[in-house]
């Protein structure tokens, strides 16, 4: 479906249906963002398991630079 077609349908819908579509789109967007965050966390967990992390001192030394 092209954006042009979506706009056509949105013009034809009543307000309640538009709200339903907007809420669905918001849920899909949040689901996508949540998946991205979970993927980042899983990647970081793998790095930690492999010993790829900074010590407390290394962390603060990098911040002071």
Tally of extended strands? Answer: 0
The biggest sheet amounts to: none
How confident overall, as mean pLDDT? 92
The topology string of helices and strands comes to HHH
Query: Which consecutive residue ranges, at least 5 long each, have pLDDT under 50?
Result: none
Distance between the termini: 51 Å
What is the tally of helical segments?
3
Please tell me the total number of domains. 1
- Rounded to the nearest angstrom, the radius of gyration is 22 Å
Helical amount among residues, as a percent range? over 70%
Portion in beta strands: under 5%
Overall 3D shape: elongated
Structural class comes to mainly alpha
Describe this structure in words.
With 65 residues, the protein is mainly alpha-helical. The protein has one domain. It has three helices and no strands. The chain starts with a helix and ends with a helix. The mean pLDDT is 92.
What topology does this entry show?
Elements: H1 3-12, H2 15-49, H3 56-64
In short:
The chain contains three helices and no strands. The protein is mostly helical.
Using brief descriptors, characterize the structure shown.
mainly alpha, 3 helices
């Amino acid at each position: 479906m092209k954006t042009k077609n979506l706009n056509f349908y949105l013009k034809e819908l009543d307000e309640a249906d538009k709200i339903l579509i907007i809420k669905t789109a918001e849920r899909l967007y949040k689901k996508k963002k949540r998946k991205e965050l979970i993927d980042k966390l899983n990647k970081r967990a793998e790095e930690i398991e492999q010993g790829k992390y900074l010590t407390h001192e290394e962390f603060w030394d990098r911040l002071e630079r």
